[in-house]
Amino acid sequence: MTVTQYEHAHLPGVLALCEAEGWPSLPADPDRAHKVLTAPGVTTVVAVDGELVVGFAYLQSDGHIQAHLSQMAVHRDHRRKGIGRAMLEYAGPLTGAQRIDLVTDEASDFYASLPHRTFEGFRIYPS
To answer: pTM score > 0.90 for this model?
Structure first.
């Protein structure tokens, strides 16, 4: 397993991971998904096992202080093998930020295993 920066060739694997998680936003428009994953201020990394994309992490950053982990997924068959941690360790320095914030509804135990502080948060959906 190798962690590397996202390239267009990884897009089908990233979209498959999103579909498996029930996340429709990126798979709905692959061209837009690639633009999102490579936008200015975005760091996207993938974990690959041979040719198979087994994980991805998508972070947005101001490049100096603040980054936000927007999405991260690891294929169900490859979980609990250190892939999520490896992606964050690889991606963190690439963002240029001093800290990474995130919101999770399913992986609290994983994120609690990392050095952190817990805050209450909200996700706002503009109308």
So the answer is: no
